[in-house]
Amino acid sequence: MESLKQENTDLKRSLRLLTTKVEQNEQLLRSFFDMEIRLFSCSNLAELLDLILVEFKDHFQLSAVNLMLLDPENAARDLLESYTPPQPEHSLRFVDNQQLLKSLFPTQTLRVGELSPPLKSIAFPRTPYILSSALLPLIRHNCLIGSLHLGSNDPDRYSDHFDYDYINHLASVIAVCIENCINQQNMKRLSIIDMLTKVYNRRAFDQEIIKELSRASRHDRPLSCLFIDLDYFKLVNDNFGHQIGDKVLRAIGLLLRQNLRKTDFVARYGGEEFAILLPNCDSHKAMQISDQLRNKIAHMVIHNSDNTPFRISASIGVTHCTSASFTFDDLNAQAHALLKAADEAVYQAKEKGRNRVEYRALPNMKPELFSAFDTRDTSLSPVSIND
């Protein structure tokens, strides 16, 4: 009778343990399912990386989460120009070939447990407190595209004595999400980026100016618009060929990107014309910025196919508006007026001798007095480009 009672007690204890284990597993699976939904809902690569590198760490109570991505053509890095990976800085790493990835996954299978010092230095550089880990191969179309490293300071957190099917499934989901984000963003990028100069195209500019006018109206802030037209650009193509002309346009695009704020919007509006939006920038500041750009363009040295240096100049038209100056309920009409004024200012700069900045007020605004900047100096040009 006593043995039967003991057996019954043991059975109840085992049942409670099994019930607790089942509840824990269900909770873990729900946690992974919720995270899976969030992964698929990410709309861009930066958002996805923040979810993986930041929220995974807290959500799964990990000591470190590192990610390595194969990116031989900079497809991912080009989408992350303004993205700052979380600390420590080595949590995100890009590789140009599969050599390092294959050293982690010679059989393309999950690795769990304590890592050897050489592998730990690859998976968790400068993180010596990792005592157990799960290294997840990210595979698409039977090709290693990356590696996700989950690290813990608990030596029993990951062990090769257990199966981790749910982690393998998570790795497959992450690989799909990374590929989808890169492909979708690159498709969108191709539709709004001028591939020659790497600045935005006219279609993107026409959409952005409406957004910026709306913001300027809501927040009662000024918006300035610049038109840049390269002087005598046709002669560059005629004298040096279209390849050198393309080289000039690429150089101008790079110069503009490097010398403006992240909030400014630069687009190739057509041919040798560039358009720039300067949010929260009044007319005086816009004129200063325009002359700085004009001066940098005038001093930029370019080489033709014979390695002979030459320079080019630009005429810049400036206008601006404030919410108080809006005369149209229709933002499209307001955008048209702003662009027309900037375009007229460019023609004015051309008529006054080129290589200068001119301001044109909107029709409903009081004309402002500006001294146009004129630094025509033919001695700047190793190769003179004249009319």
TrEMBL record:
Single Gene Ontology MF annotation: diguanylate cyclase activity
Cofactor list: Mg(2+)
Top-level EC class: transferase
Domain GGDEF: 221-362
EC numbers on record: 2.7.7.65
Source taxon at top rank: Bacteria
Pfam families per record: DUF484 (PF04340), GGDEF (PF00990)
Entries under PANTHER family matching the protein: DIGUANYLATE CYCLASE DGCM-RELATED, REGULATORY COMPONENTS OF SENSORY TRANSDUCTION SYSTEM
Name this polypeptide is given: diguanylate cyclase
Annotated organism of origin: Amphritea opalescens
Organismal lineage: Bacteria, Pseudomonadati, Pseudomonadota, Gammaproteobacteria, Oceanospirillales
